[in-house]
Amino acid sequence: MKAIVTGAAGFIGFHVAKRLASEGFDVIAVDNLNDYYPVALKEARLSALTGDANVQFHRANIADPEQLSDAIEHGADADVIVHLAAQAGVRYSVENPAAYVDANVHGQVAIFERALKMRKRPPVVYASSSSVYGANKKVPFSESDPVDHPVSVYAATKRSAELLAHSYRHVHNLASTGLRFFTVYGPYGRPDMAPWLFTDAIFQGEPIKVYNHGDMQRDFTFIDDIVDGVFGAVNRILTNPGGTAPIYNLGNNKPVALMRFIEIIEEACGRSAIKRFEPMPPADVKCTYADIDLAARDLGFSPSTALEEGIPLFVEWFRGYNGR
């Protein structure tokens, strides 16, 4: 079978593309290698990915229909599109909202329009985010909860992508499934996320910013568990597109207090952090916590990596990648 993976040089996209190739899929990998964070990391991922004979890489901005068409020309008979390309980062969306509308909204439309023109009209498994739950007080967050009050432009664009998917299912009968990822971490992770920022600061002897004075919780989810969930969603939509829910949460189902998270990183690094306590940024939320009953039922999703196991694996990779 053949899969198109967008955002294949990104953190989750890289790992998903590798898994699909290892499972025998021919993978058309697409990414624009934007410079939101250092391109060298994306190139390192691609180097690890494109050594696989089952993977072809094409550079393109998925929000540009012409570039997208050229990039996936060899994937015109694809069986599924795994659309993970996006402008990432909650806090950066405060500074540059247009980048999020372009990648996350225009890009979603471009992918769906391309799917409609392809020979097999492949179903689309796409990335959403736990951020769509905004400042909801009820926990754990369930797919049936209201998501009408996003607290960041990033979250608003991810919710827009979900609504667009609904429209294309209704108007064009295009099968799709959105996956709401909860704070994904692990080897090859993003430099703008807390595991990298804190680990780097600890090794540099620099202070870390502890938001909301440490009174926060996150449902940290290890990358291998996320990849299992994505692969489960791909299998489900290929074998039973009519029996696939429009949205699934993919999280660890075990939120961890921020101060405990810092302790685990300190233990893995073998040294203490210098903490600088700061108020909550306006685009952040206090807690994320995934209800994963639906994903467990339909996708066989069963995350098994505790933070105490996953963070040392990340720190080990970080030290090797950065020569620490």
UniProtKB/TrEMBL annotation:
Pfam family, one: Epimerase
Entry-linked SUPFAM superfamilies: NAD(P)-binding Rossmann-fold domains
Domain NAD-dependent epimerase/dehydratase: 4-251
UniProt keyword NAD present: yes
Keyword NAD: yes
Keywords in alphabetical order: NAD
Protein name: Protein CapI
Species for this entry: Phyllobacterium endophyticum
